Amino acid sequence: MIELRSEPYTLLSRPDIPETEKRFRTHLNAGWCSGVMFGVLVHHKFAQPIEYDAMLWNHESILFVEYKDSVGAYRRMSAKRAQQVSAASRNIARRFGFDRCAYIMVVNGIPEETKKGEVVTIPLADLPEYKPEFQSTRPELDYVTKLIAKYEREENPAEVTRERTVRELRVLEGMITQLK
Protein backbone atom coordinates (compact mmCIF):
# COMPACT_ATOMS: atom_id res chain seq x y z
CA MET A 1 0.00 0.00 0.00
CA ILE A 2 1.34 3.43 -0.98
CA GLU A 3 0.90 6.51 1.20
CA LEU A 4 1.62 10.05 -0.01
CA ARG A 5 1.32 13.12 2.21
CA SER A 6 1.12 16.83 1.66
CA GLU A 7 -0.56 18.51 4.59
CA PRO A 8 -3.46 18.46 5.14
CA TYR A 9 -3.97 15.56 2.69
CA THR A 10 -2.97 11.90 2.87
CA LEU A 11 -3.39 9.68 -0.20
CA LEU A 12 -3.62 5.93 0.36
CA SER A 13 -3.84 3.30 -2.34
CA ARG A 14 -6.29 0.44 -1.94
CA PRO A 15 -4.58 -2.97 -2.06
CA ASP A 16 -7.41 -4.68 -3.94
CA ILE A 17 -8.66 -4.40 -7.51
CA PRO A 18 -12.46 -4.45 -7.57
CA GLU A 19 -13.78 -6.73 -10.29
CA THR A 20 -16.04 -3.94 -11.59
CA GLU A 21 -13.01 -1.69 -12.28
CA LYS A 22 -10.97 -4.09 -14.42
CA ARG A 23 -12.74 -3.07 -17.62
CA PHE A 24 -12.29 0.61 -16.72
CA ARG A 25 -8.54 0.14 -16.29
CA THR A 26 -8.15 -1.49 -19.70
CA HIS A 27 -9.81 1.54 -21.35
CA LEU A 28 -7.60 4.11 -19.61
CA ASN A 29 -5.18 6.04 -21.84
CA ALA A 30 -2.00 6.52 -19.82
CA GLY A 31 0.21 7.50 -22.76
CA TRP A 32 0.36 11.20 -21.79
CA CYS A 33 1.30 10.72 -18.14
CA SER A 34 4.33 9.76 -16.09
CA GLY A 35 2.46 8.28 -13.14
CA VAL A 36 -0.77 6.49 -12.32
CA MET A 37 -2.36 5.48 -9.04
CA PHE A 38 -5.50 3.36 -8.82
CA GLY A 39 -8.00 3.06 -6.00
CA VAL A 40 -6.91 6.16 -4.08
CA LEU A 41 -8.46 7.19 -0.78
CA VAL A 42 -7.81 10.81 0.16
CA HIS A 43 -8.02 11.69 3.84
CA HIS A 44 -8.33 15.31 4.92
CA LYS A 45 -8.29 15.72 8.69
CA PHE A 46 -11.84 15.07 9.94
CA ALA A 47 -13.61 15.32 6.58
CA GLN A 48 -15.20 12.34 4.86
CA PRO A 49 -12.57 10.55 2.74
CA ILE A 50 -12.77 10.95 -1.02
CA GLU A 51 -12.14 7.99 -3.29
CA TYR A 52 -10.78 8.25 -6.82
CA ASP A 53 -10.65 5.21 -9.03
CA ALA A 54 -7.60 6.60 -10.82
CA MET A 55 -5.20 9.52 -10.65
CA LEU A 56 -2.95 10.15 -13.65
CA TRP A 57 -0.27 12.83 -13.76
CA ASN A 58 2.69 14.33 -15.57
CA HIS A 59 5.08 17.09 -14.49
CA GLU A 60 2.42 19.84 -14.45
CA SER A 61 -1.06 18.29 -14.62
CA ILE A 62 -3.11 15.71 -12.76
CA LEU A 63 -6.33 13.99 -13.79
CA PHE A 64 -8.70 12.60 -11.14
CA VAL A 65 -11.11 9.95 -12.40
CA GLU A 66 -14.17 8.48 -10.76
CA TYR A 67 -15.66 5.42 -12.43
CA LYS A 68 -19.28 4.29 -12.17
CA ASP A 69 -19.88 0.78 -13.51
CA SER A 70 -23.58 1.41 -14.17
CA VAL A 71 -25.98 4.21 -15.01
CA GLY A 72 -27.77 3.51 -11.72
CA ALA A 73 -24.57 4.09 -9.71
CA TYR A 74 -24.04 7.32 -11.64
CA ARG A 75 -27.58 8.53 -10.94
CA ARG A 76 -27.20 7.88 -7.21
CA MET A 77 -24.37 10.43 -7.01
CA SER A 78 -25.75 13.94 -6.55
CA ALA A 79 -24.56 16.87 -8.64
CA LYS A 80 -23.67 18.64 -5.39
CA ARG A 81 -21.38 15.79 -4.32
CA ALA A 82 -19.74 15.76 -7.77
CA GLN A 83 -19.07 19.51 -7.43
CA GLN A 84 -17.61 19.01 -3.94
CA VAL A 85 -15.27 16.28 -5.16
CA SER A 86 -14.26 18.45 -8.12
CA ALA A 87 -13.40 21.39 -5.83
CA ALA A 88 -11.48 19.08 -3.50
CA SER A 89 -9.56 17.73 -6.50
CA ARG A 90 -8.30 21.21 -7.35
CA ASN A 91 -7.19 21.76 -3.74
CA ILE A 92 -5.43 18.40 -3.63
CA ALA A 93 -3.68 19.07 -6.96
CA ARG A 94 -2.51 22.46 -5.73
CA ARG A 95 -1.21 21.00 -2.45
CA PHE A 96 0.80 18.38 -4.33
CA GLY A 97 2.35 21.05 -6.58
CA PHE A 98 0.40 20.64 -9.83
CA ASP A 99 -0.37 23.74 -11.91
CA ARG A 100 -3.36 22.22 -13.69
CA CYS A 101 -5.94 19.58 -12.90
CA ALA A 102 -9.15 17.98 -14.09
CA TYR A 103 -11.78 15.78 -12.49
CA ILE A 104 -13.99 13.59 -14.66
CA MET A 105 -16.52 10.86 -14.18
CA VAL A 106 -16.52 7.82 -16.44
CA VAL A 107 -19.74 5.83 -16.66
CA ASN A 108 -20.33 2.43 -18.20
CA GLY A 109 -23.60 2.53 -20.11
CA ILE A 110 -24.26 6.20 -20.87
CA PRO A 111 -24.60 6.92 -24.59
CA GLU A 112 -22.75 10.26 -24.82
CA GLU A 113 -20.72 12.85 -22.96
CA THR A 114 -22.75 14.88 -20.49
CA LYS A 115 -22.30 16.78 -17.23
CA LYS A 116 -23.27 16.19 -13.64
CA GLY A 117 -23.39 19.72 -12.30
CA GLU A 118 -20.26 21.17 -13.89
CA VAL A 119 -18.38 17.85 -13.89
CA VAL A 120 -17.61 16.31 -17.28
CA THR A 121 -19.03 12.80 -17.54
CA ILE A 122 -18.00 10.52 -20.39
CA PRO A 123 -18.99 7.03 -21.54
CA LEU A 124 -16.50 4.26 -20.80
CA ALA A 125 -16.19 3.61 -24.55
CA ASP A 126 -14.88 7.19 -25.09
CA LEU A 127 -12.17 6.94 -22.43
CA PRO A 128 -9.29 5.67 -24.62
CA GLU A 129 -9.45 8.78 -26.87
CA TYR A 130 -10.45 11.30 -24.19
CA LYS A 131 -8.31 14.46 -23.92
CA PRO A 132 -8.85 16.17 -20.56
CA GLU A 133 -9.47 19.91 -20.38
CA PHE A 134 -7.25 20.92 -17.51
CA GLN A 135 -8.05 23.92 -15.32
CA SER A 136 -5.64 26.04 -13.35
CA THR A 137 -5.11 25.19 -9.69
CA ARG A 138 -4.28 28.85 -9.02
CA PRO A 139 -7.38 30.94 -9.82
CA GLU A 140 -6.02 33.98 -7.98
CA LEU A 141 -2.99 34.07 -10.29
CA ASP A 142 -5.31 33.71 -13.30
CA TYR A 143 -7.32 36.65 -11.97
CA VAL A 144 -4.18 38.82 -11.67
CA THR A 145 -3.18 37.87 -15.24
CA LYS A 146 -6.68 38.84 -16.44
CA LEU A 147 -6.43 42.21 -14.66
CA ILE A 148 -3.01 42.93 -16.16
CA ALA A 149 -4.30 42.14 -19.65
CA LYS A 150 -7.34 44.33 -19.03
CA TYR A 151 -5.24 47.36 -18.10
CA GLU A 152 -2.48 46.81 -20.69
CA ARG A 153 -4.70 46.50 -23.75
CA GLU A 154 -4.44 49.29 -26.30
CA GLU A 155 -7.87 48.76 -27.84
CA ASN A 156 -10.75 49.80 -25.61
CA PRO A 157 -8.58 50.49 -22.53
CA ALA A 158 -10.10 50.01 -19.08
CA GLU A 159 -10.66 53.13 -17.05
CA VAL A 160 -8.70 53.15 -13.80
CA THR A 161 -10.73 54.44 -10.89
CA ARG A 162 -10.22 54.18 -7.18
CA GLU A 163 -13.51 52.30 -6.71
CA ARG A 164 -12.78 49.77 -9.45
CA THR A 165 -9.26 49.14 -8.16
CA VAL A 166 -10.47 48.62 -4.58
CA ARG A 167 -13.25 46.29 -5.81
CA GLU A 168 -10.78 44.20 -7.84
CA LEU A 169 -8.32 44.03 -4.95
CA ARG A 170 -11.13 42.88 -2.63
CA VAL A 171 -11.99 40.07 -5.06
CA LEU A 172 -8.35 39.02 -5.06
CA GLU A 173 -8.20 39.27 -1.26
CA GLY A 174 -11.24 36.99 -1.02
CA MET A 175 -9.63 34.43 -3.32
CA ILE A 176 -6.43 34.41 -1.27
CA THR A 177 -8.14 34.21 2.13
CA GLN A 178 -10.16 31.20 0.89
CA LEU A 179 -6.87 29.29 0.63
CA LYS A 180 -6.37 29.25 4.40
Radius of gyration: 19 Å
- Shape verdict: globular
The CATH architecture term of the largest domain is 3-Layer(aba) Sandwich
Number of helical segments?
A: 5
Beta-strand proportion? 25-35%
Helix-strand topology string: EEHEEEHHEEEEHH
Number of domains: 2
- The end-to-end distance, rounded to whole angstroms, is 30 Å
Description:
With 180 residues, this protein is of the alpha+beta class. Strands 1, 2, 3, 4, 5, 6, 7, 8 and 9 form a 9-stranded mixed beta sheet that branches. Helix 4 (139-152) runs antiparallel to helix 5. It has 5 helices and 9 strands; from the N terminus they run ββαβββααββββαα. The longest helix is centred in the middle third of the chain and has 17 residues, at 79-95. The protein has 2 domains: 3-136, Trna Endonuclease, Chain: A, domain 1; 139-177, no CATH class. The protein starts with a strand and ends with a helix. Helix content is 33%, strand content 29%.
Summarize the structure.
This protein has helices at 22-27, 71-76, 79-95, 139-152, 162-177; strands at 3-6, 9-13, 35-44, 50-57, 61-68, 100-107, 114-116, 119-123, 135-136. By secondary structure, it is α+β, with helices and mostly antiparallel strands. The protein has 2 domains: 3-136, Trna Endonuclease, Chain: A, domain 1, CATH 3.40.1350; 139-177, no CATH class.
SSE layout:
Elements: E1 3-6, E2 9-13, H1 22-27, E3 35-44, E4 50-57, E5 61-68, H2 71-76, H3 79-95, E6 100-107, E7 114-116, E8 119-123, E9 135-136, H4 139-152, H5 162-177
Parallel strand pairs: 5-6, 6-8
Antiparallel strand pairs: 1-2, 2-3, 3-4, 4-5, 6-9, 7-8
